[in-house]
Amino acid sequence: METIMEKTALILGAAGGVGGETARALIAHGWNVRGLIRRPRSEPDGIEWVTGDALDREAVLGAAQGVSAIIHAVNPPGYRDWEKLVLPMLDNSIVAAEAVGARLVLPGTIYNYDPRHNPIVAETTAQRPDTRKGAIRVEMERRIEQACNRGMRALILRAGDYFGPRPGNGWLSQGMVTPGKPVRRIIYPGDKGAGHGWAYLPDVGETFARLLDRDATLPAFARYHFRGIWDGDGTVFVDAIRTATGKPGLKVHRLPWALLPLIAPFNPTLRELIEMRPYWRHPVALDNRALVAMLGEEPHTPLNKAMTETLGALGCI
């Protein structure tokens, strides 16, 4: 086992949404952050960039030398080739975490659960997904738990749909508004009256940082749920967009789910998103009591402030 450098983290996906915000939060908490990236970067963002690919085991192992945490926040862009790429990338991070004695950190999703049967989800709720992506997510967590049984340490923080200044694969920036353009209408994916959970990325990053600061008190296999912003009927999030843009009369159009299968053969991202429709028809709220018990509170930015910062960064206001 390699000597671990105090408060040094390797982030796979540090240029993305959750990875980028987690990097910023860790740096603010006094961590050294290393980012594995396929193409070199020179931005003065406080991250030590290492060129490499998450699919290259030797590159991941090399970048992980001396770190105490590995944040696995990397996904195939646009949900492409999930079934081929996701598990091999995770396996590389597991091998690296075991080799250097680091805690492996994974941003979890609600895809592990069937929304038709799980309106409220706790860490102990049985994971019985009804989608292909959900089955892959369950397998990811199973492999992590198996590694923890062999002696590795891990942390999974589950959250709802991400939004924020670094959007990544988010519904807000990929479907509801158009980045770089003023908001003239809102396309909402959810059924009328259906609740939906949102996670503001800076709050998620801050939560990861606070949990990792308490690494010594965490279980070997730690799993917590981040409640985030709960929109009980699908109107709260939309109203926040109206408030942030200063346009109280913005019209809401329902996402034409019935038309998506006609476009999906030519658009891999849409093909994957169609599978997510049940999560917009049925509520899945995350029970965060274990997280609050550990931290004392869940980091929370008021929705109107979060939306204003997000749409400003997206170039929509």
TrEMBL record:
PANTHER family: NAD(P)-BINDING DOMAIN-CONTAINING PROTEIN-RELATED (PTHR48079:SF6), PROTEIN YEEZ (PTHR48079). InterPro entries: Epimerase_deHydtase, NAD(P)-bd_dom_sf, NAD(P)-dependent_oxidoreduct. It comes from the Bacteria. This is NAD-dependent epimerase/dehydratase family protein. Residues 9-214 form the NAD-dependent epimerase/dehydratase domain.
